[in-house]
Amino acid sequence: MVNRTVPSVSSGPAPGGGAGDDAGEHGPLRQLANATLDGNWEHDHTVPSRTLYPHQWSWDSAFIAIGWSHLRPERAWSELTSLFRAQWRDGRVPHIVFNPLVPGGAYFPGSGFWASAEVEGAPPMATSGLVQPPVHALAAWHAYRRAPSAEGHAALRRLYPRLVAQQRYLATDRDVGGAGLASIVHPWESGVDNSPAWDAPMSAVPDDPALLRAYRRRDTVHAAAAHRPTDLDYARYVAIVTAYRAGGYRDDGLIDRHPFLVECPLFNAARGAAEQALAGIAGEIGADPGPHRERAARITEAVLARLYDPQTGTFRPRDLRTDRLTPARTVLGLTPLILPDLPARQVEAVLAEATSGRFGLATRMARPLPSHDRTAADFEPLRYWRGPSWMNINWLVRHGLLTHGREGLAAGLRASMIELVGAAGCHEYFHPDTGVGLGSPAFSWTAALLLDVLAD
């Protein structure tokens, strides 16, 4: 990587460096991460950033809780508890919980656009009607093991039924295809919003520019338009939400009326990993872990049957509208590594993809892990999710590598993650060639997950 801008901070240890090195060598990075989380703390949760994201985001809070477990574990449990306080009656955990003290025009689409107060079964606070990848059980279990305590044990006991309800909602209401996988109803639900993975299914969404003219985008106030989704994509995002909202955010009959329905590898791998984490939590609090392990195995089987492409050796989203796998080869294809019972054959195939020139994973990485195939014609190193490197995806891939005993590659990815922040600070995402920081500065999950990898 080049363009280092923080010369006083080491670019990261050689693969295999341990926690003893980090205690002294990475002291300034720890201080930066601590200050970032402290600066973004908002009474019972952490905002992703003080600029573009002034509310609480679902999977952000999960990753952030992992970071807090290294600093102030009580905040880790407050983070998750406050999020699940906004859980809907059907079990869905909304992807945004709105802070009523933030002016309505500070973020689009704001609480008025979602109109959750008009929906039966929504919580008393204003939220969106969408969800995000269910990484919360994985985060809760990871945070507890990082900092076990009586308070953490009590928090796990409180969270457990809510985490189970989240999984139940996804396994029932969202199994639109009937094959054991949850469908996402919007690219925002994938977490990787603007990925080329969604170009094919998005092309079928009606294009109505008038929808966007009725609103004002706020993201391009804080970030360059060339780094963000296009106006056409945003108009389609609004159209999809409008369709879902018109049905009262109901999930029955989606196959007959909703314009975007996709089975996502990351989303469903997160479901399987969540069941494995719930098995651990259940064992800790005296519940039966067996059903969770059984559900995890069934999810893994469905991911293999529905989303694995043996011709390319990678996982791809399935568009339920066409019943076809989407063509783009993105980092989504690597994320099923987080499934502990992924068969060895598929593990090897995914690693071949990861270590190829498309993604460049190595024990000593020359460049950051990109979010899209860097050899593809539509690779964009600056645009949101169409090329840049993201700390949370790096963390998930590294978690998968460790799960399958690939310590050397995990160490290479760890060193790359440390180097990114050491050179550019706690940015939202990073240039996949130079490592330059992009998006929002002082970004919470970047700080949180840096603390976690430094602790290893």
From TrEMBL:
<protein>
    <recommendedName>
        <fullName>Mannosylglycerate hydrolase MGH1-like glycoside hydrolase domain-containing protein</fullName>
    </recommendedName>
</protein>
<keyword id="KW-0378">Hydrolase</keyword>
<feature type="compositionally biased region" description="Low complexity">
    <location>
        <begin position="1"/>
        <end position="13"/>
    </location>
</feature>
<dbReference type="GO" id="GO:0006487">
    <property type="term" value="P:protein N-linked glycosylation"/>
</dbReference>
<dbReference type="InterPro" id="IPR054491">
    <property type="entry name" value="MGH1-like_GH"/>
</dbReference>
<dbReference type="Pfam" id="PF22422">
    <property type="entry name" value="MGH1-like_GH"/>
</dbReference>
<comment type="similarity">
    <text>Belongs to the glycosyl hydrolase 63 family.</text>
</comment>
<feature type="region of interest" description="Disordered">
    <location>
        <begin position="1"/>
        <end position="28"/>
    </location>
</feature>
<dbReference type="InterPro" id="IPR008928">
    <property type="entry name" value="6-hairpin_glycosidase_sf"/>
</dbReference>
<dbReference type="GO" id="GO:0009311">
    <property type="term" value="P:oligosaccharide metabolic process"/>
</dbReference>
<dbReference type="InterPro" id="IPR004888">
    <property type="entry name" value="Glycoside_hydrolase_63"/>
</dbReference>
<dbReference type="GO" id="GO:0004573">
    <property type="term" value="F:Glc3Man9GlcNAc2 oligosaccharide glucosidase activity"/>
</dbReference>
<dbReference type="InterPro" id="IPR012341">
    <property type="entry name" value="6hp_glycosidase-like_sf"/>
</dbReference>
<keyword id="KW-0326">Glycosidase</keyword>
<feature type="domain" description="Mannosylglycerate hydrolase MGH1-like glycoside hydrolase">
    <location>
        <begin position="53"/>
        <end position="446"/>
    </location>
</feature>
